[in-house]
């Protein structure tokens, strides 16, 4: 843009839960309330405080779902009278309609990129901008196969970031005489290619004049190479229509360094469109010199094999209810992952804001991005179109970032027609843009055109295996690997969401939820424990279950590391996972892994070979080994033929190898089998 006007601050505001604003022409009148943007309706506490609680996820204090109107007056200065204007909203949430002086001029609905609204030329003087944001209106991005959780896409679900209403990040009125609509940098080596789209605006509807007459149009590129003198290149272009494509190839000096995990060198390119010496528009982007390819079952970065040591980012930010748009927020989140020795982050059914890519570029992290869906494919034409539109926008907006190395449709997709949909998606992007590697869906299915796949089988807790599962059948050891699963696919294989281990919640963290959500599920656990006279044991439950979890994580990660030709793993996460049936806990600094309530019960439990949770009385013998006190009221021991015979009440030890402690009793540190 040539200039921008910051639109953050206070504006007129009104909730429209009944949807009467259009009929009553609210856009043409002053709204009664006020609100500050950037921010959300939850943060502004514009609805009554809720009191309901659920074990399913954290509880929003001041939720709102529906239409809301945001309004402010702007002034177009004299020097901007001949320019064209865009309203830029970095990250709104919902369908957004823009009204200028009471007239609707534009609409946008992206959950993955900034929303931009073209308003054309505006007369010098004051104008009223009114936005209607409807966070009840999305395509069916979260209509998953889960019957109890019909809306789970992390781009909008209350199970993760919350379905908030508002705008966060930058809010600007951007002005330009014409547009650099696309600036793409392809830099697999020091021989780079820059692709541009130049878009002309014209107020003449029937006989446009912009590309008529004699003009000198050039694109001026300025490359700021890290540690080097800037490089300036002027490239002439011929404007013959409203859309002009330009491709520029350059050979960078040998001193221009590559980007990689251990040396993440970032460069910058500035582009300026000049007509007869006058600037029409400017654009800028950072980029890195790096290649990403596959060779058999390996992913290669700059020709060298990489092993993905990854975690998930599930858009869980409980203080705000939405992802940060500033670098400091992402440095905290990504710096923690880096400190754990990880090099990779998968964004589960959502795409983060620009600051996340910028920080990942700086830290040398490898990002896996998804369109904002967890849904059925191939049965909803509107959703299918939306997925393709979101993918186009994501790549156009963030595709130059060297950290953006992996791309897929979304999480655990379903549908009888999904296979062809995914094959087309991967085939299309592989032919259009080789700056990253592509897959169909995270978790499943395996698509023939995919360059890598992520699968739930190469992990210790495969669903539905029961007593035959890795940790039920054998004790902890150092021999297991995932070679049998590697051999089943010809491409790179990454394990999907390993480490789904339950940990008792840390009730001391209730006080830390000071933002838009409250840990009422924790409070339910606390109150239940207190009623049972067990509140004093809560910390022991948390620490002992966390210690078990740590051992299980170690087992899973080491199995992945020792597997030949394995491409890497993606942990379910390093932080709280507050939704999808489980109560939230802490995946914190001391304990690596998922924390959640098992069986939604605040009582020590044991999971038996028969998959029944029973409250046995845990004791220790002199050697410190745990045993179950056999008695007439223990339904487990009555069913278990492997207990020692003749024990009676207080008698024999249970030797069932399949027993696993899920939540330990106070002070216990048992390992099974005994």
For the secondary structure, the number of strands is 37
Mean residue pLDDT? 87
Task: Report the β-strand fraction as a percent range.
Answer: 25-35%
Please report the number of helical segments: 10
Q: Kindly, what is the distance between the CA atoms of the first and last residues, rounded to a whole number of angstroms?
A: 68 Å
Largest sheet: 9 strands, parallel
Give Rg in angstroms: 28 Å
Write up this protein.
By secondary structure, the protein is α+β, with helices and mostly antiparallel strands. The chain has ten helices and 37 strands. Strands 23, 24, 25, 26, 27, 28, 29, 30 and 32 form a nine-stranded parallel β-sheet that branches. Helix 2 (327-339) crosses helix 3 (354-363). Mean pLDDT is 87; it is low at 582-674.
Blueprint of the fold:
Layout: E1 3-6, E2 9-16, E3 33-37, E4 39-40, H1 41-44, E5 59-60, E6 67-76, E7 84-92, E8 95-100, E9 103-108, E10 115-120, E11 125-134, E12 166-176, E13 179-186, E14 191-199, E15 217-224, E16 231-237, E17 243-251, E18 267-275, E19 278-287, E20 292-295, E21 298-301, E22 304-306, E23 308-313, H2 327-339, E24 344-347, H3 354-363, E25 366-373, H4 381-398, E26 404-411, H5 418-432, E27 437-438, E28 441-442, E29 452-455, H6 470-473, H7 483-486, E30 492-498, E31 517-518, H8 520-531, H9 538-561, E32 568-571, E33 605-607, E34 613-614, E35 618-620, E36 626-628, H10 635-639, E37 660-663
Parallel strand pairs: 23-24, 23-32, 24-25, 25-26, 26-27, 26-28, 29-30, 30-32
Antiparallel strand pairs: 1-12, 2-3, 2-6, 4-12, 5-31, 6-11, 7-10, 7-12, 8-9, 8-11, 13-14, 14-17, 15-16, 15-18, 18-19, 20-21, 21-22, 33-34, 33-37, 35-36
């Amino acid at each position: 843009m040539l200039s921008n006007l910051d639109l953050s601050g206070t504006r007129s505001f009104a909730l429209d839960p009944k949807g009467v604003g259009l009929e009553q022409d609210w856009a043409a009148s002053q709204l009664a309330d006020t609100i500050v943007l950037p921010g959300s309706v939850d943060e502004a506490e514009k609805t009554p405080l809720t009191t309901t609680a659920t074990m399913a996820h954290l509880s929003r204090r001041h939720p709102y779902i529906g239409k809301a109107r945001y309004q402010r007056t702007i002034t177009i200065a004299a020097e901007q009278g001949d320019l064209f204007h865009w309203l830029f909203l970095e990250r709104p949430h919902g369908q957004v309609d823009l009204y200028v002086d009471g007239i609707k001029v534009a609409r946008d609905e992206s959950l993955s990129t900034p929303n931009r609204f073209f308003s054309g030329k505006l007369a010098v003087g004051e104008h009223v901008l009114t936005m209607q944001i409807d966070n009840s209106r999305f395509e069916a991005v979260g209509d998953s196969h889960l019957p109890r959780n019909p809306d789970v896409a992390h781009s909008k679900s209350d199970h993760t970031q919350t379905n908030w209403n508002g705008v966060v990040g930058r809010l600007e009125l951007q002005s330009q005489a014409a547009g650099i609509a696309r600036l793409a940098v392809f830099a697999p080596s020091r021989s780079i290619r820059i692709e541009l789209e130049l878009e002309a605006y014209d107020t003449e509807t029937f006989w446009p004049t912009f590309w008529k007459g004699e003009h000198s149009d050039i694109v001026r590129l300025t490359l700021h190479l890290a540690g080097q003198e800037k490089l300036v290149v002027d490239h002439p272009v011929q404007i013959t229509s409203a859309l002009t494509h330009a491709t520029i190839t350059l050979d960078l000096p040998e001193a221009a360094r590559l980007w990689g995990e251990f040396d993440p060198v970032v460069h910058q390119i500035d582009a300026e469109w000049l007509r007869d010496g006058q600037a029409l528009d400017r654009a800028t982007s950072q980029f890195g010199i790096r290649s990403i390819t596959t060779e058999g079952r390996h992913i290669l970065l700059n020709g060298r094999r990489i092993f993905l040591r990854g975690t998930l980012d599930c858009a869980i930010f409980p203080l705000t209810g939405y992802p940060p748009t500033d670098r400091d927020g992402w440095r905290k989140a990504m710096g923690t992952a880096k400190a754990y020795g990880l090099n990779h982050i998968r964004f589960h059914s959502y795409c983060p804001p620009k600051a996340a890519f910028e920080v990942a570029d700086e830290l040398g992290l490898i990002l896996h991005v998804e369109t904002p869906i967890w849904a059925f494919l191939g049965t909803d034409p509107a959703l299918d179109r939306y997925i393709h539109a979101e993918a186009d926008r994501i790549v156009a907006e963030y595709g130059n970032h060297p950290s953006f190395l992996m791309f897929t449709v979304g999480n655990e997709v379903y549908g009888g027609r999904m296979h062809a949909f995914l094959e087309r998606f991967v085939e299309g992007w592989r032919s259009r843009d080789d700056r990253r590697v592509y897959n169909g869906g995270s978790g499943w299915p395996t698509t023939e055109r995919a360059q890598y796949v992520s699968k739930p089988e190469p992990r210790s807790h495969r669903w539905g295996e029961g007593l035959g599962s890795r940790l039920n059948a054998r004790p902890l050891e150092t021999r297991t690997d995932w070679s049998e699963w590697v051999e089943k696919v010809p491409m790179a294989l990454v394990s999907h969401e390993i480490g789904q281990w339950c940990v008792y919640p840390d009730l001391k963290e209730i006080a830390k939820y000071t933002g838009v959500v409250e840990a009422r599920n924790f409070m339910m656990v606390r109150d239940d424990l207190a009623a049972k006279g067990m509140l004093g044991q809560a910390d022991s439950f948390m620490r002992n279950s966390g210690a078990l979890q740590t051992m299980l994580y170690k087992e899973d990660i080491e199995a992945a590391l020792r597997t030949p030709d394995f491409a890497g793993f993606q942990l379910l996460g390093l932080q709280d996972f507050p939704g999808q049936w489980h109560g939230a806990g802490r995946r914190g600094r001391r304990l690596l892994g998922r924390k959640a309530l098992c069986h939604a019960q605040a009582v020590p439990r044991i999971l038996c070979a028969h998959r029944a949770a029973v409250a046995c009385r845990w004791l220790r013998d002199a050697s410190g080994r745990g045993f179950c006190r056999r008695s007439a009221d223990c339904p487990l021991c009555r069913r278990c033929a492997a207990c020692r015979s003749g024990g009676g009440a207080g008698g024999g030890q249970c030797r069932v190898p399949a027993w696993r402690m899920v939540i330990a009793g106070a002070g216990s540190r048992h390992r099974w089998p005994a």
